[in-house]
Write a sequence for this structure.
């Protein structure tokens, strides 16, 4: 298995890069216009990238996407439709990565886990950034 895109009614909810995925050269799976870029970096031994920085360009972001990479353990990621119905459960293990693009999501820890989590900032606190929703099963 390589990448998996979870869509419903034409809306992309998540992208998963399974740990077994390999690429010969760097490949991004998200479209260039996405506010969050998601891909794999791959280079042959001896490759050197010139020292560089990324330009500070004003960007307007209307969504907040979150990515995490499982380092150890197992976690079930639950994705919900806009109506609150359970859409999909994805079980991730070490090396698996997911970007949460749209909609309500939850996690259930199956084995003690540790994940690297990345999301856009600045963090405005739970009151401004997080809305708890009652999902249906």
């Amino acid at each position: 298995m390589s990448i998996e895109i979870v869509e419903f009614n034409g809306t992309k909810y998540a992208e998963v890069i399974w740990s077994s995925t390999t690429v010969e050269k760097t490949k991004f799976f998200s479209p260039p216009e996405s506010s969050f870029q998601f891909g794999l970096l791959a280079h042959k031994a001896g490759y050197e990238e010139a020292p560089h920085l990324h330009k500070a360009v004003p960007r307007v972001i209307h969504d907040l996407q979150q990515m995490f990479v499982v380092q150890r353990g197992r976690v079930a990621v639950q994705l919900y439709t806009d109506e609150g119905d359970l859409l999909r459960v994805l079980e991730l293990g070490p090396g698996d990565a997911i970007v949460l693009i749209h909609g309500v999501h939850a996690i259930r820890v199956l084995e003690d886990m540790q994940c690297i989590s990345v999301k856009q900032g600045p963090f405005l606190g739970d009151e401004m950034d997080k809305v708890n929703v009652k999902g249906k099963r």
Notes: The longest helix spans residues 126-129. The domain at 3-42+61-122 is CATH 2.60.120 (Jelly Rolls). The beta strands are 3-8, 11-17, 27-28, 39-40, 66-80, 86-92, 97-100, 105-119.
